[in-house]
Each structure stands twice: as structure tokens, then as C-alpha cells.
Design goal:
This protein is α+β, with helices and mostly antiparallel strands. Helix content is 59%, strand content 23%.
């Protein structure tokens, strides 16, 4: 191969390499940062771009579409010293590629750490119950807190979502034990209230029964007195009807006594009439 041919081939290779270094096609959804001799020179937009070979170099390639940042789960201590687990997901967009490249070393890691620290700060100001029930409030405060920092890094935070916010396993066990103890306490209170009401009702029942028994005895005594008075008025001074009635009652009582299993022998008075007269005499003396 002659020297001239070698020079021609070398020139063709040089031209091809030069064209390759000077022509750049940027895809839609990307922007490239160009540095000239190590200093920022410009930003390549999507489409065909021409650079000065050997002077300009593409230093960074950025995606301008929405970026999904998964914020890992972390332990957070609430104001009442409860430990909860929480993680989040953020949707950010590069709006200023120059700031995103030169403002921070790694904007993705920076915004992720910023979300984690801000989330710990927000939840740390809340009680456990408030933290578990204020997902939307935490989300709004989180997005508001990191928005300014994100702008300084050439980013726009489009949304931050709290994926999970839950007590730690130790807290879950403690809460379950607390709930079980509370249920047992309520059951004991309910049982004691039931026993109290039952005792009150039983006492009221005994009181009412005693009142009714007393009233019945009074009414029975009054009825007996009234019947005796009426018999005495009807009989007057005659003792024969009185003797007949008493004798009839007396004999009936002896018959019932004789029908009892434990009373096989009934002793009849020898003189029934005299016995009744004596009884009438005693009643008359009391009247």
C-alpha cells in the first residue's frame, strides 16, 4: 500500500470521527448538557444538534419526563414516643437541567433523602393516633416543605404519596394487648353492672312480696274481725247457734287431723258441749 493511499484512508477516518462527534440527535423526553473545554456551554434539545468536535462534549444526559422516586420504608418516632413505619413515593420532573446537574451531586438521591428527613420531622410533631389518621395532612405538608428545595435543584415535585403508615410490630403487639385489656375491662364492668341490677331487682322483689304479705295478713285479720263481729251481732245473746257453728268447725278440724299420716289416733273430748260452752264463754269474755 502506497503512502498516499494511507494518508487518504486516515483523512477519511478523521472526517468520519469528526462528523460523528459533531452531530447529535437527542430523543424526545431528554435534554443533554454540553460542556466546552470543561465548562457548561449549552443544553441540547430533542432533535438534530451540531457541536464543535473535540471542543464540545456531552457531559450529562437528563430525562425530562416524570421521574418516579421510591422512598424506602423507615422508622419514625411520634411525639408520644410510638414507633411507626412509613414510606412514600414521589413524582418529580426536571425543569431546569443546568440546576439539576450543577446544583447537587445526585438530585434523585438528594430529593429522596429530603423527603425522608421531612417526613420524620412532620410525623415527629404528631401523636400516634393523629399520625395514623392524617395521611392527607402529612402528604400536603410534605409536598409544601420540599417544594422550595426542589426548585433550587431544578426539579418540580408534582406529587408525593404516602404509601404506608403503620405501627411497628412491637407497637402492633402493644396495641393488641391494650385493646384486649380494654375489652376485658368492659366485659368485667358489664358483668358487675348486670349482677348489681340483678341484686337490686331481687331486693325489690323481696320488698314488694313482704309488703303484699303484710297487706294480705292485715286484710285477712280485718276480714276475720268483721266476720266475728257480724256473727256476734247476728247471734245476740243466744248461744245455741254459736255452739253449732263452733262444733261444726271443731269436728271438721278433728277430721282433717285424723286424715294426717302422722296422726293415727284422735282424742275426742268427753263432753263436747261443755267444751264448746267454755270456748264461747272465753270469746264472750274477750268481746
Amino acid at each position: 500500500m502506497s503512502a498516499g493511499l494511507i494518508i487518504v484512508i486516515a483523512l477519511l477516518i478523521f472526517v468520519a470521527v469528526t462528523i460523528a462527534k459533531g452531530v447529535r440527535v437527542v430523543a424526545q423526553g431528554e435534554e443533554w448538557i454540553v460542556e466546552r473545554l470543561g465548562k457548561y456551554h449549552g443544553t441540547l434539545k430533542p432533535g438534530l444538534n451540531i457541536l464543535i468536535p473535540y471542543l464540545d462534549a456531552v457531559a450529562y444526559k437528563l430525562v425530562t419526563k416524570d421521574i418516579i422516586l421510591d422512598v424506602q420504608e423507615q422508622e419514625v418516632i411520634t411525639r408520644d414516643n410510638a414507633v411507626i413505619l412509613t414510606n412514600a413515593i414521589a413524582f418529580v420532573k426536571v425543569t431546569d437541567p443546568v440546576r439539576a446537574v450543577y446544583g447537587v451531586t445526585d438530585f434523585s438521591e438528594a430529593i429522596r433523602n429530603l423527603i425522608m428527613t421531612t417526613l420524620r420531622s412532620i410525623v415527629g410533631e404528631m401523636e400516634l393516633d393523629e399520625a395514623l389518621s392524617s395521611r392527607d395532612k402529612i402528604k400536603a405538608r410534605l409536598r409544601e416543605s420540599i417544594a422550595d428545595e426542589a426548585v433550587d435543584w431544578g426539579l418540580t415535585v408534582k406529587s408525593v404519596e404516602i404509601q404506608d403508615i403503620k405501627p411497628s410490630q412491637s407497637m402492633q403487639r402493644a396495641m393488641e394487648m391494650q385493646a384486649a385489656a380494654e375489652r376485658e375491662r368492659k366485659a368485667a364492668v358489664t358483668k358487675a353492672e348486670g349482677e348489681k341490677q340483678a341484686a337490686i331487682l331481687e331486693a325489690e322483689a323481696r320488698l314488694e312480696s313482704a309488703k303484699r304479705d303484710a297487706n294480705a295478713q292485715v286484710m285477712l285479720a280485718e276480714a276475720s274481725a268483721e266476720s266475728i263481729r257480724r256473727v256476734a251481732v247476728a247471734v245476740g245473746t243466744e248461744t245455741t247457734p254459736m255452739l253449732y257453728l263452733l262444733g261444726e268447725k271443731y269436728i271438721a278440724s278433728l277430721e282433717r287431723l285424723g286424715q294426717g299420716e302422722s296422726s293415727k289416733v284422735v282424742v275426742m273430748p268427753a263432753d263436747l258441749q261443755e267444751t264448746l260452752r267454755g270456748l264461747v264463754g272465753k270469746l264472750g269474755a274477750r268481746g
